[in-house]
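We give the entry.
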Amino acid sequence: MSKRITIAVTFIAALSVVVLCGVCSAAQSSATKAPARRPVKAVPRLPVKVAPNLPVEAATKLPLNLISQMEMISIPAGSFDMGTPDSYTGDHNLNQHPQHSVTLSAYTIGKYEVTRGQYIEFMEAGGYGTKAYWSTAGWSWKGTRSKPDSWIVTQAWKEGQIFTQTDNHPIVGVTYYEAEAFCNWAGGHLPTEAQWERAASWTGTHANVYPWGDVWDAEKCNNLDDHNSAGGGYQYWQTSLVGSYPSGASPSGCQDMAGNVFEWCKDWYVSDYYSQSPANDPQGPAFESGSRGILRGGSWYTNASYFRCASRFFCYPDHYNYDLGFRLVR
């Protein structure tokens, strides 16, 4: 069982986040650094705060055929521009270069992040006890674990602030291994980085900077700076119901591809992978001991610099926290 790792998060200038993290330390790029670009940073990992004496609540009853009713968006086969162009002068990281053309086969992707209710169905179907759903590394890591972290109804992610999750909130507290096992059970897989970015950004002629367009708008996703009641307003220590920010949808129609929760992708992380990735259906670099998984999209806890569609983050596959989730691809 993975032990939680205490993270020190320091807010610097207008609440931008700098991560001081033990095992998921920021990778330093050897490329020449342009003035507007920042070193690659790991996903921010939050200190867990638990309110005393909270009751442990049972999962609510699920509707039948919840997984079969999952809404999927069809993405046609075709090419798109992945990464950040050299001409971009905004705040970004070196691991997003070079921008390159990628051709993908057709696929479907979840319109929403996988919900708590959908994940509980996996649990109730014996997902944690069925070895066939798990990778060798995942099964070895799991041990006696039988549920994700932070899955019960009542949560207190900030002292004194009680938050109630429903079946339509995104599942959180899952590792890469747990997300991977769910997807295997559901007849799919985690999205590759390319599949995720294509669904988040591509208009058919160009890639948006953010899912909804090229101008940052804090009210279009659940994030550190939005005051939208859908995400709790000023009480930002909580997820929102999936699909609560319809004006922030991507050109393909996917919801919450910016904000709410970071999303695990299938690929393993290498900072300069874009300079060597294949042009057709890239699957990411091969797994090696110590490999870190890719995370995309930012979360309720992060600010504007994390929500660009091309932004890439990483963390070890056994890490979990209350701003990490995922979506399904078939």
